[in-house]
């Protein structure tokens, strides 16, 4: 029930945007009554936020194993590569990219939805990654002065090329032929900068 | 005249999108006749493309000096830092960010405008940077196996953090307090990976 309601909400939001999404149409598409919707959700805003949150949770769940393996790594280079490949796969997906486009297109009209997405998705993912990198530093496997910046850098080294191309050319989103190369190139640069063999002065200003 | 027409076109495009932009309103806003517009531009598509092209050319002109200095660098670290600071300043601007948002929001309806922007702005800038990096490699100042990938990486190391934050939170675009730190952090990572002291195996897979 809850799942059908949130699926319908996400679909409507992607098609018609925030203002084009109505609880009436969510009710019709998910074949439940409006009363049922209001038993589960306080209003349209709650519906849209929960639908986006569910998408984020699904992506997090997909990536959880590679993330946990990285956090407890005994083979850092290999586990960074696996993480990078999984991360590019999780994020460069048509639905995630479509949500990004939709939120960005409505950022001036609905800034709170955009801020909520940013906090829950990219920002939270990077905070989690920063914690993970700190743990790897404590174990002597990495040498990083500012884990927050390093987490952002690693994230964007992995994602930026296909993400930016995909934002302007939707046809490229499902072309995964170079994703492993991007992931590997990101890991090469990241390890060159922050591998344990590096002097810490290199990453500190 | 031409300038007034293109200013009015850009303003309208940002406000109302591609389908909301009409030559009638461009004529009214720029106080010229429609005949005059059609003497300079073949149709609305031509107008919008030229208006975007003009914005790109202005950003390129702003960054030209730092770019030329980098290409002929005798003090690589310093010139990379100057380039990175200039690049973040040129791109993380309200008008450029607003154009990006507008194009992204209309990518499904007007894919050709989005592809044209991608080719003319980010893609072309990276090709130019890749050529520059190749020249620096030939002079023994950098050690890069794949200059196209390295140019993308350097570009996104510089821009990604403020750009992605700014796409979801417009209020942050004019907060430049951390831009120098992002630029420097990008250069540190880039030089660690591709500085001439590095073994080329590090950057080749």
Structure summarized in a few sentences:
Chain A is mainly alpha-helical and 205 residues long. Chain A has helices at residues 2-16, 23-30, 34-40, 44-71, 76-91, 94-105, 111-138, 147-168, 179-194.
Largest sheet of chain A: none
* Largest interface, chains and sizes: A-B, 44 and 43 residues
CATH superfamily of chain A: Tetracycline Repressor, domain 2
Strand content of chain A: under 5%
The helix tally of chain A amounts to 9
Overall description:
By secondary structure, the first copy, chain A, is mainly α. Chain A has a single domain (2-203), classed as Tetracycline Repressor, domain 2. Chain A is built from nine helices and no strands. Chain A has helices at residues 2-16, 23-30, 34-40, 44-71, 76-91, 94-105, 111-138, 147-168, 179-194. In chain A, α4 (44-71) packs antiparallel against α5 (76-91) and α8 (147-168) runs antiparallel to α9 (179-194). Chain A is elongated. The N and C termini of chain A lie far apart (53 Å). Residues 199-205 of chain A have low confidence and may be disordered. The A-B interface holds A 101, 103-108, 111, 114-115, 117-118, 122, 146, 149, 152-153, 156-157, 160-161, 164-165, 167-171, 181-182, 184-186, 188-194, 198, 202-203, 205 and B 101, 103-108, 111, 114-115, 117-118, 122, 146, 149, 152-153, 156-157, 160-161, 164-165, 167-171, 181-182, 184-186, 188-190, 192-194, 198, 202-203, 205.
């Amino acid at each position: 029930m809850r799942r059908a309601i949130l699926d319908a909400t996400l679909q409507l939001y992607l098609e018609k945007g925030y203002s084009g999404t109505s609880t009436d149409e969510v009710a019709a598409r998910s074949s439940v009554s409006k009363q049922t919707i209001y038993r589960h959700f306080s209003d349209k805003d709650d519906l849209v936020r929960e639908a986006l949150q569910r998408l984020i949770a699904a992506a997090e769940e997909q990536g959880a194993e590679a993330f946990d393996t990285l956090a407890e790594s005994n083979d850092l280079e290999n586990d960074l590569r696996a993480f990078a490949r999984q991360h590019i796969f999780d994020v460069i997906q048509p639905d995630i990219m479509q949500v990004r486009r939709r939120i960005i297109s409505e950022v001036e009209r609905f800034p709170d939805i955009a801020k909520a997405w940013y906090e829950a998705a990219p920002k939270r993912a990077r905070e989690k990654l920063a914690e993970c990198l700190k743990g790897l530093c404590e174990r002597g496997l990495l040498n990083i002065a500012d884990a927050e910046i390093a987490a952002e850098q690693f994230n964007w080294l992995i994602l930026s090329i296909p993400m930016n191309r995909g934002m302007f050319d939707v046809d490229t989103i499902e072309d995964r032929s170079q994703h492993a190369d991007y992931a590997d190139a990101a890991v090469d640069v990241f390890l060159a900068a922050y591998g344990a063999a590096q002097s810490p002065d290199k990453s500190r200003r």
